[in-house]
Amino acid sequence: MQHRHIAFIGAGNMSRSIISGMCNSGYPADKITASNPSMPKLSALKSDFSIQITQQNEQAVQDADVIVLAVKPQLMEQMCSTLNDNVSLNGKLFISIAAGIETSRLSEMLGGQTNIVRTMPNTPSSLGKGMTGLFAPAHVSQADKEYAGDLMAQVGEVAWVEKESMINGVIAAAGSSPAYFYAFLEAMQKEAESQGFDHQTARLLVQQAMLGAAEMVCHNPQLEISELRAQVTSKGGTTAKAVEHFQNNGIDTLVSGAMQAAVTRAEEMAKLF
Ligand SMILES: NC(=O)C1=CN([C@@H]2O[C@H](COP(=O)(O)OP(=O)(O)OC[C@H]3O[C@@H](n4cnc5c(N)ncnc54)[C@H](OP(=O)(O)O)[C@@H]3O)[C@@H](O)[C@H]2O)C=CC1
Ligand SMILES: O=C(O)[C@@H]1CCC=N1
């Protein structure tokens, strides 16, 4: 990918994941700056990756070609307007990773800048196993789209969406969904403990089963996921009873309700921030 000078505004979990992916794949550290109000996360980034750090957003932005907007959604407006008041933003590419803030709203926050790509990554990006959805308005150049796609590909798979509203679908299916799987695993671990396993063994049993199941899905793209399920489900056996219990208790409705709740919240956030 092109090695443009890039600044991360907000040095939290997601920025650290992306920076780690970039550095691991050879992006020059002297072209990466991170900015954050408090020092500890910056110091860790400096010592782990030798990138540039600053507590002044303006300083990070000044010399950068690309600005990654990586603060919490409720802080975005204040942060962007302070930037816009203090430094020229013309000619820069903005890449937002924030949930629930549309590009038109980001443009307002940035004093009319329109060169904005919106992305939705997830926390497995920290292991290079992320999934990121991207959207760019039609006026964003092919070169800028390519840069944004290459950037997020440093930490996993990427998928572009044509309509901005589909970013909320990405949130429901991939941005938030690691937490659904954790909730499921927590419940399984608890039940395994009730059945007599100690905490660590219960965790090992469920985590290894999940990892193996995920790998089976990835390594067998020719098989529908339902076919992989069928392979586990012996006729008259144990799995059939467990799966039947899920189905009789509305697993499909439960999952679609949860995903719709995530979309609804993203839509509410778009009005709030
Ligand atoms: N976590 C997730 O699963 C995902 C999160 N996102 C999005 O990523 C964004 C960041 O989330 P995440 O990394 O999890 O959050 P974190 O809280 O880990 O990181 C946000 C960082 O922003 C810093 N910050 C606060 N105010 C400012 C400011 N004015 N200028 C610069 N930096 C500031 C905070 O510093 P300090 O701690 O010192 O206050 C903190 O380090 C959010 O918009 C979220 O919607 C997107 C996809 C997935
Ligand atoms: O919960 C959130 O709002 C963010 C966006 C996706 C994952 N975490």
Explained architecture:
The protein has two domains: 6-163, NAD(P)-binding Rossmann-like Domain (Rossmann fold); 177-270, ProC C-terminal domain-like fold (Orthogonal Bundle), CATH 1.10.3730.10. It has twelve helices and eight strands. It has helices at 13-24, 40-49, 57-62, 73-86, 103-109, 142-153, 166-175, 177-194, 199-219, 225-232, 238-248, 251-272, and strands spanning 6-9, 32-35, 52-54, 66-69, 93-96, 116-120, 130-135, 156-160. It has an eight-stranded mixed beta sheet, sandwiched between helices. NADPH dihydro-nicotinamide-adenine-dinucleotide phosphate binds at residues 9-14, 35-38, 41, 57, 70-73, 75, 79, 97-99, 120-123, 175. NADPH dihydro-nicotinamide-adenine-dinucleotide phosphate is lined by residues 9-14, 35-38, 41, 57, 70-73, 75, 79, 97-99, 120-123, 175. Catalyzes the reduction of 1-pyrroline-5-carboxylate (PCA) to L-proline. Residues 6-100 form the Pyrroline-5-carboxylate reductase catalytic N-terminal domain. Its EC number is 1.5.1.2. It catalyses: L-proline + NADP(+) = (S)-1-pyrroline-5-carboxylate + NADPH + 2 H(+); L-proline + NAD(+) = (S)-1-pyrroline-5-carboxylate + NADH + 2 H(+).
